[in-house]
Amino acid sequence: MLTSKVAKRYAQGLLDFTNESGQTATVFSEMKDVVKIMGESKDLNKFFMTPYIDSKKKIEVAKEIFKGLSASSQNLITLVIKHGRENQLKNIAQEFINKVEDINGVQRITLTTATEISKENINQILRSTNLVKADSNFDLKLNVNPKILGGYILRVGDQLVDASVKSKLNQIKKDFQLN
Prior knowledge:
Strand order of the largest sheet: 2-1-3-4
Oligomer: single chain
Number of helices: 8
Shape: elongated
Structural class: alpha+beta
Distance between the termini: 36 Å
Strand content: 5-15%
Mean pLDDT: 90
Largest sheet: 4 strands, mixed
Low-confidence stretches: none
Radius of gyration: 20 Å
């Protein structure tokens, strides 16, 4: 997933601030909540995306929704809205999470399969590649996409292993077209 420069800059600023103030762990867990809330609420996203709603009203609503968060997180949200970047709030929070996980050595892994698979199969796939470090922590996201027909697509950070049936069929098709 591509992250905007805006999200990276705000996230880096927040990370610098939380490192100096010793609040990284607290804000880290709160940013996970922000991502979850923004991901689950289509109405909230529509509200923030509506250009004719005044930023003061958006700040008021955000303070009510995120009232359980620390002052640092609330100040970030207010700042983002004041600067007209509320459409980037979820991306900023996710980028902050990614930066903290990078510092802590957490690998981000996405496994896409055609159907649901067992934990045993997931572990076997992860062990079969040298991209996943056995001694490191990882954040595993599982996706089901029937369009790949079978097999799996494993993304570790910015590296990809495409062992899907669809890609193999496409490769065979290309080979036939060349001959």
